[in-house]
User: Fold these one by one.
Assistant:
Number 1:
Amino acid sequence: MNSNKYLLHELSWVDIKALDKQSTVFLLPVGSTEQHGPQNPLGTDFLIAQYVARIAAKNSEIVYCLPTLPIGVASHHRNFAGTLWLKPHTFETMVKEVIHSVHYHGFDKLIVVNGHGGNTASIMQAISEYNDVHDMLCVLFEWWSDEELIKSIFGVPGAVHADAVETSTVWAACPDLVIPERFEGLTSAEKWGREIGGLFLSSRTDQFTETGIAGSLDGISKDKGQQALDAAAKKLVYVAEELSRYKK
Ligand SMILES: [Zn+2]
């Protein structure tokens, strides 16, 4: 059915009730509304996750996309204007209760498509509980997690924050929202956070970067961003279709 209707909020309850309970896979895009440097929109993380999830749902007959959760665990960015955040416990509860709703309707397969590293721990808590206690098959998908792929496209070992990798990717997803005139002269922290004796010291973003950016800004490219989006959507379709066939 889903050749042109793959967003849950555009369908009716009758359509959802008619879906096959075993093979249907739901995608839940989650992200954050937080500073991403002067050049990128505050919605960067959820906009990328939503883009990848919607393209994947469009390209697969058994995949449907839930509405996006656009606010996440981001209090470390709070000294940059416009950043919004939830407590980790609140975010985890929101993810769990969406999973619970899907489960209640008789479906067992769901992929959380995350766009923000700060959400990962809370999502894993939610997923583990539903897989262990309720026998669901929930999976976490993060577009930047394939380091080999990121390296092959951008020539760096991974995405950091509002760096060339992420700026390129959101630029391709939302061409009107990135401001290339602001690329010139941007400063950036070499890496994410502070360290003591090689150990990560969690810290507020404003304590190590003035612009909010961390990681290299060399080689920002909308084309490379599109390659990253296409590769992520393709991999997500693959994972969803494997999950669809998976027998518990
Ligand atoms: Zn981000």
Note: Residues 222-245 form the longest helix (24 residues).
Number 2:
Amino acid sequence: MFLSPYAQMQKAVDIVHSSPHPVNKIAAALFGQDQDGQDYSVSSTNYWPENIVKTIGTSCKIGGSSGTIHAETGCILKAPYTDGASICVTDPFCPNCAKNMAEAGIKTIYIDHKGFQKDFALRRGSHFDAVSMQICEKAGISVYELYRKEERLVPIWEAPESFSPFEDSPAQISAIDVLNQQSFDQYIDDAEKLHYSRKFAIAGAIDKGGAYYIILVRSHPALGYCMQRDKAEMIRDDSKYNFVLEPVSRLLMNAARNGLTICDGYLYSSVVPTSREQVNMVGAGLMQVIVGDKERARDETAFDAMKLLSMQSIIRFIDTAH
Ligand SMILES: [Zn+2]
């Protein structure tokens, strides 16, 4: 069967050695049904976007982030419609990908059992248990360890039947008649009034039938978390990973979840996107972002990434007239 997780895992395993990463070679295959009920499957290794390889290279950091797109996120950026989809990954996934997969509406994750035996997984183990799995439980994503040869699944965590995660602040998606600079400026204005000093992002997007939409999101903890209720749970000592999903990342994931493509030039972020958001933007093929306040960012590394990517003409950071 085309959509069996064993066949899909084999697809990921078959390409994993083609990963350009010298040490951590990872691959994933994402599969499900698009809005028309058609089966699809896409796969990806972790990789550096072509324009980053050409101009910056693979050894240089981009602000605080590596220049790579993780395999799981790479699949989401390629997929036609991720709501309810499943994904096979060769290795235990990182917290950032867990947040992305939750936001993209993925419901089932299969991890190759061999992935748990690698050095890399052992090093990453505490993040997997303490952060990635917590995110999956809150989002209602079932996670299985998959044995290809025996065609056997061992549940790591199974979401209760008909579990529906709490959505504190879902993306607001509205159908619109026209998308042009003037109308987009108006949507930015309205969003600014609504969110005031909160971090948010907004984009114009198109579906495969050619209809336009506006997607509006604010920075928010991963799907299923509630800002107030889960405050204590979200406090962590190390700062490498946290539970918050930044707005541009949320936009990219919600576009995938709803089968929409963000129109380049129609992306606005109220502050400078984080280094990771900027790299993921490049992975999504976006080359422009309008920034509300270029003096504001989550951390200093975002400014370094902005400097580097604009100097190399990979992303244009456009000043807003607002
Ligand atoms: Zn990852």
Note: The mean pLDDT is 93.
